[in-house]
Amino acid sequence: MNEPGKRPKHVEQHEAIDVSDFVYAATGARVRRLTLPDGSHWFPAVDVCKELGHTNSRKALADHVPDEHREMLETVTGGYGLSIPAGRGWRRDLHVISLQGLILLVNACTKPACAPFKQWVAEVIETVQREGYYSLDEAEVQSPEPGAPIAYAMPEQVAEAIVRLEAHNLQLDEELADGQRESIALHKETLALQREVLAAQQGTLAVQQATLAVQQAMVRAMERIADRIDSLVLDRRPPQAHLTAPPTTETVLAGWRQRLSVTEDVWTVAVVIAPVLVEQGELREPLESIAARTGLSVHRVNECLRLLRKHACIRSRGGTEDGAPVYVLHQD
Predict the structure, then answer these.
(1) In this prediction, what percent of the chain has a pLDDT beyond 90?
(2) Per CATH, the architecture of 249-329 is what?
């Protein structure tokens, strides 16, 4: 018999909010994580401090993180007989902090990207003080499997923080692409000047003519490479579908890409459901089937579909007799 208040070891643990999304919303970055058999999460202190702008990680830990929420990696893994993770700078003497320690460092930083998360934490505390508890809203679509854990909707502040951070990353990608295009244009101008110089050098000695021929071949090859790079950069821009043309999988995905900034998981689900919506007019596939095709959890698939609905990519049309949700394309 299990002791009162303790979770049986054989019971599968279920997180109401995906820890990766939780940490991303809190820190504005993907941070290395070590998850122990008891379900607790530990993070390299140097990674967290770097992302939050704490220049002196040792002082930040001493000022904001109590001893019970920080340890040496060797101590944490040794308690479960685990070996030190290989690669990526994992060391025995690496300082790691618990999830509570991470939240304490977030609350102590002034990084603007952390503001929505800190406001949500304040809201949770105020709600607990006022009402005695705080609970997440249940997701609109639940797994029909008997005994399946309840899926919860991600808090609005956390979800919006993730969307804003992804949008910021996409903006950086666009700025990088603009810089690449400017570099290609400058490179083409340089190639044009080189061609003029080569043309002016024609008529010199035979050795010079042979050298010029080699240089001209190199210039033509560089032009083809530059044109190809330019084409690849421009091809990244989503195609504009004709107003009267019926939707295709490509135009639907391009429209979704313009409509919202998506995480890798959301895009994985979008790529799977878009062909079905275009070819069959609606999606009647159970969440478990989509999870199996994408490699994601049923809970994560449900969150991805919720974000696609929120940003008017798809809309709900009830459910099937088996309890599976029915979705159709959102028509503007």
Answers:
(1) 22
(2) Orthogonal Bundle (1.10)
